[in-house]
Amino acid sequence: MKKTKMLKKNYEFKRVLSKGNYFSGRYMEAFVKPNYYLENQNLLGIAISVKIAKAVKRNKIKRLIRENYKNYEETIKSGNSIVFLWKKKAKIENATFENIKKDMKYIFDKAKLFIEEKK
Q1: Which of 32, 34, 41, 49, CA to CA, is 20 to 30 A from 76?
Q2: Strand 28-34 and strand 5-6: pairing?
Q3: How far is 82 from 91, CA to CA, in rounded Å?
Q4: Domain spans, the chain
Q5: CB 81 within 8 A of CB 7
Q6: What is the largest CA-CA distance in the chain?
Q7: Model-wide pTM > 0.85
Q8: Overall CATH class of domain 5-110
C-alpha cells in the first residue's frame, strides 16, 4: 500500500481549486488537476469549512475521506492532485463510511480516474 501524499500549502490548494476540473457528488465535491512533477503519485487535499461543524466533527469527516481514499488508491490513475470539499448543504449525520465510499466511487467514475483493466 502506498503512503498517501497530502497537499498542505495554501498555494497548492488554490492551484487545484482554480485550474482543476470540478466533479460533484451527493455529499462531496472534488477538484482534479494533473500534476506533471509527480507522475507516479497522487496528491490528496481535504478541506471542510469551519461553518459546517466544530473541529471534532470536521476531523472525523477528514478521517473518513482519507480512509476511503486509501481503499481506492491502488485502483485509480496516478499523477493527479485531488481536493475533496464537503458540501455546505450536506448534513453532518450523512458523513458515514458507506455514504462517503459511494460518493467517492461516483466522483472517480465521473472523472474517469479508475485504471481500466486490460483484457
Answers
A1: 49
A2: unpaired
A3: 22
A4: 5-110
A5: yes
A6: 48
A7: yes
A8: alpha beta
